[in-house]
Amino acid sequence: MKIAKVIVDVPLMQTDKPFSYSLSAEFENLLEVGMRVHVPFGSGNRLVQGIVIGFEDEELEPSVNLKGISELLDVEPVLTDEQLWLADEMRHSVFSYKISCLKAMLPNLLNSNYDKLLKSTDGTSVKWSQLTEAEKISSAKAVRLGQLSVEYLAKSKENKKTEKFLSIPDIEKLAEFEIEKRAKKRLELKYFLLRLQEEKIAVRSLNFSSQIIKFFVEHDLVKIEEVEISRTKEKFEDVENDSAKILNSEQNAAYEKIIASSDKPFLLEGITGSGKTEVYLQTIDHFLKLGKTAIMLVPEISLTPQITNRFIARFGDKVAIMHSGLSDGEKYDEWRKIKSGKAQVVVGARSAIFAPVENLGIIIIDEEHETSYKQDSSPRYHARDIALLRAKWHGARLVLGSATPSLETRARAMRGVYELLLLTKRANEAAILPEIKIIDMRSEISDQSANFSQSLLTKIKEKIDKDEQVILMLNRRGYSSFVMCRECGFVVDCPNCDISLTLHMDTRTLNCHYCGHVEGIPQTCPNCHSRKIRYYGSGTQKVEEELREIMPEARVLRMDVDTTRTKNAHEKILEKFGNHEADILLGTQMIAKGLDFPNVTLVGVINADTGLNLPDFRASERSFELLMQVAGRAGRADKKGEVLIQTFNPHHYAIEMTKAQDYEKFYEMEMRFRRELSYPPYYFTVQVLVSHQDEEVAIQKSYEIAQLLKQNLTEKAKILGPTARPIARTHNLYHYQILVKYRFEEELESALNQVLELTQLRDNKNLRVLIDSEPQNF
Ligand code: ADP
Ligand code: ZN
Ligand code: ZN
């Protein structure tokens, strides 16, 4: 009898191995490896989704009674052999279930409930869900024979060419409408709507359930209308064509090396504006001409529409774009474009590394030091590791690019594991490197302002008077505004998380950035009832307000999480700034990356220090990268750029090396520090996170786990903790952590698997253990 081996979508340790299901004669000719099926599972024979990973012919004892496959979900494989192999390889480093590795490779639409439309050549079509089992089997056969074609449908109506938009008929009414404090989601939507900058917003871009929205419709707080739209087309329309530039000698040397050999991955290290992107474009072009394909990863692509436009300008509709800002339907469209071979260049954020391209010629990871390449939920993979595997499978090139490579990558290049390619000059000869000045805030605090030194204000004024533009960055990491009582020091905390609530001035609310809790601002102190309760700190909103007061003539655009929540909001803000509809772009870290505005001649950093003081061994590296990156936004064309950095730590080496624009020196100093304290890249790290509702249980289990690790690892491994997490409680769970530092531990994987097995014990039902290999955030 023929048997199908199926990985089922049930998160249990034992489900990592495939289960056997018998195949009826009907299914035998239809089913292939890489297709999804519904199978009965467990004692209740609940139907679960599964992925077929192989077949076997087995002589079975008559007594063995195998369950059969219930339903086909695909008419052709959705996963390739390569992807099945990747999932196997990946599993060892990410400590996730195989099914979650496999699901990471599929667009959401194929992981959730969906329907298919079967279209015949005469134009009629029928929905898969309306067919009987027998009809499904015969339709699947018809698809094989090319008599029917298939289109997957999203649950929502997004495949239609209409779009629902929401508008607010009466903002006063909405503002005054009382919502019960307990109805958190409703409250959240209310405040979200009050903050809305646009007149209309697409309903599907809202992160709220239809029930919540319905409540607002029923109370006449919002209006919904359906509007005709054209999907996906728009992005190719207004991009001009662009042709290759003649490479300078450094660029050319890099280009030649990359196309010549695939023995080692390359590190393309070049200062901002040195023409790395031009090298990417031309090497990709080389492989396209050989009939191959390419993957280009960029961090958080929605933040850098300028980059995607350069790819579209060069390669037109050969480009598929994958990023988190797309709806499930749009993602599925791009996935299909790639799978069918219509797109040969995939430009995307982290998960695009799994794009189902065949015949891969080159993979490029731009800004390889970015932490967004590591997924911080399960499966916790790093795109770089997946890229290495895929490059191996295809014999493809792998290029890691950065102006400030991560220490891990640079150290590998120094040891010869990667080949180092250097670009030392700006490609556009007229563009010289900006001049960087450090402003010592200890002696420069002005009476006029809490955030700005006099030197920065004078400089901004000077630039605006010359009709030039300014970028101002506020480092928000570890920094937020909060409400405190001046009488007793009481700070308003989230009831579910050990963290103070962040003040949102525009909505006059206090929000938890972890769990989404929202509440009003108290008039008196909840602790001592004093009226001396005050707002503290200054987020981007406060800086914006201050700027408007001091310099009312300056036109300011703000870019932060609040102003970019809606679809395409980034693009709109950047477009306005690009059209010189504003003089100043004020924002958080999100403005540091990838922007290229020739008229920007001044970059100001409001607070360089906030990132330096975080309890994370990468704090200096992150600050240096960020400052170098934002400095690179100034003077990109023929006007010389200036950078002013305000700091209370002018002699910190991350600040001094930024001023000198000296990556090499920073690398040396930072490596010395890492060696002394046994941190990466001298040691590998793995973090075990233990969470439980009951703090005592969390502590006790953490000690048990640390003990288990000590017993299984050699003395050379350093086991730190358990200690409480920096934010010890979120979502009503207490969190403890153990950090293992090691160089080579043969038993590490099996020891960590033992740790995971603990959670499968009946006694530990509410225990949550996460294993994060090479964690990026502490
Ligand atoms: P990076 O990616 O290193 O920041 P880019 O590739 O964006 O650098 O190049 C910076 C600017 O220089 C861009 O405007 C680009 O068009 C231009 N440029 C790059 N290479 C060349 C070249 N060989 N000749 C002329 N201009 C170039
Ligand atoms: Zn919270
Ligand atoms: Zn008080």
From TrEMBL:
Q: Which residues form the Helicase C-terminal domain?
A: 520-690
SMART domains, sorted: DEXDc, HELICc
- Report the cofactor remark: Binds 2 zinc ions per subunit.
> What does it catalyze?
ATP + H2O = ADP + phosphate + H(+); Couples ATP hydrolysis with the unwinding of duplex DNA by translocating in the 3'-5' direction
User: InterPro entries under this entry?
Assistant: DEAD/DEAH_box_helicase_dom, Helicase_ATP-bd, Helicase_C-like, P-loop_NTPase, PriA, PriA_3primeBD, PriA_3primeBD_sf, PriA_C
Q: Which GO terms describe its molecular function?
A: 3'-5' DNA helicase activity; ATP binding; ATP hydrolysis activity; DNA binding; zinc ion binding
* Domain (Helicase ATP-binding): residue spans on this chain: 257-423
Role summary: Initiates the restart of stalled replication forks, which reloads the replicative helicase on sites other than the origin of replication. Recognizes and binds to abandoned replication forks and remodels them to uncover a helicase loading site. Promotes assembly of the primosome at these replication forks.
Q: How does it assemble?
A: Component of the replication restart primosome.
Please state what the protein is called: Replication restart protein PriA
